[in-house]
Amino acid sequence: MQDRAAAAGAGLMAGKGKGGRDGAPTIVLRREEAGGDGHHGGAWKVAYADFVTAMMAFFLLMWLLNATSDDQRRGLADYFAPSNVLGRSATGSGEPFGGTTPNSDGAMVSDNGAIRIEQGRAPVRLDIEDEGPSDALPETASVAPPQPAGEAVAHGAEARPPQPPGKAAPQSAAPAARPAVPPPEANAPAAGIDAAAIGEAALRAELGRREAQAFEQAAAEIRAAVREDPALADLGRQLVVEQVPEGLRIQLLDAERQPMFAIGSAAPNERARALLAKVAAIAAKLPNGLAIAGHTDASPFRGDARSNWELSAERANAVRRLLLEAGIAEPRLQSVAGHADRMPLLPETPMAAANRRVAITLLRSSPGAAP
User: Fold this and answer.
1) What is the pTM of this model?
2) What is the CATH code for 209-369?
3) Where do the domains of the chain lie?
4) Are the beta carbons of 365 and 207 closer than 8 angstroms?
5) R_g over Cα of the chain
6) Is residue 268 left, alpha or beta, with left meaning phi > 0 and alpha meaning psi from -120 to 50?
7) For the segment 39-92, what is each residue's pLDDT rounded down to a tens digit?
8) Would you tell me the crossing angle of helices 189-227 and 270-283 to the nearest 10 degrees?
């Protein structure tokens, strides 16, 4: 539009220029005001304000959830939607089968939240004799001694005069007060002691039974380990594993042509070392203490420099060192002793090779629990 106005103005100026008085062009300025567009309205502002308000409420809710504890949030929830079912009834006389809510209009609901039920102490039972003659007495009720004939004396009341036959005795206005019977625990301390002793004995017996089962399993594993090793299979007859009152005893015996130690020496041979390694691997699985004892036959030493006492003790100590090297913890060792020829395995033949042996005993945890 402005271009058309400028072109028209230019044409007029050109026409007037030709016929002008002084030959100067005439300039005509035409101004036209263009009308603006209509007002778009402010509906978007309302929607934007609602969006901003919703976001502010959302972030405020997130902040409140983060700043409050679980108990505080539970209290707020109970305030707006009470979970106290017992407190919803106004008087307790509602209409449970009427199909309506138990809360009548205007009923007040407690704002203390949900009712918490805590387990209290067990009530003390007072065994008081019943009034009725046909009621059975409780087991813990005490039986009163028999009264002499013609006497009817009640605790805390005077004796009533005898009534003639056929006439019932008048009932008193209120039953006479009777002293409370203390609980049975106070009347029978010996019974509690007996119960504790019985419980302790039963526990000891159960522990002994489980320990015996563990020993039996260990003995079976030792025999199987020796039997399955081709290099040690023939030594099975020189290995004696048995349960004794002290515990599980494992004995390594000498044979006539298969000794565990050289004659007069405390150093075990290679096969004895391998056998002890098998025993130690299984004994390490049990927590029991160990006792090691060395024994010899009745063969005397030549000279007075050494004796069977030194030899048996040295052999027991050598076995101790091998067990420690195989993984047995040192605190488990309870004793290491040498008994010389004082405890022969075959008393009838004191010179027998089986008397030369080393005994390893897995001690019981409680000696009284032996089966």
Assistant:
1) 0.47
2) 3.30.1330.60
3) 1-32, 55-80, 209-369
4) yes
5) 54
6) beta
7) 667 889 999 999 999 999 999 989 988 888 888 888 877 777 765 544 444 444
8) 140
